[in-house]
Amino acid sequence: MKIKNTNEDLVFNLTQVILRQLDEDYCKSPKFMLDVVCYVLNRIKPIYVVSSRGLAHLEKSYDEDKQFIADIITLIYEAIENISVRRSENFDDETITWDISYTITKDYYFNFPQIIGKIYDANSFDLVYEAKITLLDEKNEPIKMTNNLWPNPYIVSKSTSGIFTFWPKSIKASKEEENKTKKFIFKLVCEHPDYLKEEKIISIEKKSEQAIIDYIRKGDIIELEPLYLVKK
Fold first, then answer.
1. Backbone φ, ψ for residue 82 (5° rounding)
2. Which residues pair with 206 in a beta bridge?
3. Which of 40, 122, 133, 189 lies at a CB distance of 3.0 to 4.6 Å from 75, suitable for a disulfide?
4. pLDDT tens digits for 158-206?
């Protein structure tokens, strides 16, 4: 898999949302948008993630530091103001694209996002640690992960504030499924010696594409509703 600064996707997605709300034509230009993205990325520290535990620590840091997102949004507005004032050229005068770092393939694949969630005690609402979380397919078999840095089952750790993460491996599409959308049904099973077993169904719709996504796209992560466990 590729090493990638996850803040790139976070900044890119936030910039897209903000620029869509503005009326000026130049704000719709890909060149202007990427100027804004570069302005912001040059002013914040990069964050690199390759493993499930790394993503869990990243989500923990976002939970604990809401000001970080606010600071990025402030920088985006600052960039819009500065770039629109100092640049007079037509922002559409050349083609610039966002490097999404796909691994291009001749075959079609269904690429899955990362799945992330937390577990709580149903009575006290405290986080539950040392629970075993397993992600199963429709045959009740553990789903293969992208690589061995993403365990399945996953043991919830106190060091990551009860966060668990999965990244299902890309699945090759059949000829009939090429460039088509398919619904996948996953089952999340949570087990802990002090609690009753809890299960949750996850439905994901993905369109097959001629690429394998081998990096974490922050804006594409599925954040599950919390799981609440009942004591035995």
1. -65, -45
2. 182
3. 40
4. 877 888 999 999 999 999 999 999 999 999 999 999 999 999 999 999 9
Amino acid at 97: T
What is the spatial distance between Cα 12 and Cα 38, in angstroms, rounded to a whole number?
A: 9
Measured distance CA(58)–CA(61) in Å, rounded:
5
pLDDT at position 93: 45
What CA dihedral angle connects 12, 215, 49 and 228, to 10 degrees?
90
User: Radius of gyration over alpha carbons of the chain, in Å?
Assistant: 20
> The tokens of 100 are what?
């999404």
Angle at 20 between CA 102 and CA 81, to 5 degrees: 100
Q: How many CA atoms lie within 13 A of 199 on its CB side?
A: 7
Read off the pLDDT of residues 111-123 as tens digits, 9 standing for 90 and up: 998 898 999 999 9
Side-chain-facing half-sphere of 50: CA atoms under 13 Å? 6
Bridge partners of 186, per DSSP, are 202
More confident residue, 79 or 101: 79
Domains delineated in the chain: 6-86 (no CATH), 103-229 (2.60.40)
Helix axes 66-86, 52-64, angle to 10 degrees: 80
* Residue pair 56/156 in contact by the 8 Å Cβ criterion: no
Q: What angle do CA 226, 227, 229 make, to 5 degrees?
A: 140
Least confident of 49-58, 77-86, 128-137, 157-166: 49-58
Q: Tell me how far CA of residue 18 lies from CA of 4, 14, 36, 95, in angstroms.
A: 23, 6, 11, 21
- pTM score: 0.67
